[in-house]
Write a structure and sequence with these properties.
three-stranded parallel β-sheet, 53% helix, 78 residues, alpha/beta
């Protein structure tokens, strides 16, 4: 059901806790169904610390290549 609802979107902005787990998983899920995931890096963190957060971003960068901070999004919209 959810796939049918979100299938009309071209991209999703993603933020959350545990960049190396939950954020990474949802970003990959969106990518797999053809929706561009844009991770807002300054709105993410990891309960396992900065190293885990940075590791999650490294995996995202290697696999998806796109993440930005909120300021970059604000500048594009205005």
């Amino acid at each position: 059901m959810l796939v049918h609802i979100i299938a009309d979107f071209e991209r999703f902005f993603i933020l959350g806790i545990d960049t190396d787990m939950c954020v990474l998983k949802i970003a990959m899920n969106f990518f797999d169904i053809g929706i561009e995931p844009i991770v807002l890096t300054d709105c993410c963190a990891s309960t396992a610390g900065l190293q885990a957060h940075l590791a999650g971003l490294a995996v995202l960068s290697r696999n998806l290549g796109l993440f930005v901070c909120v300021r970059q999004v604000s500048l594009r919209v205005s």
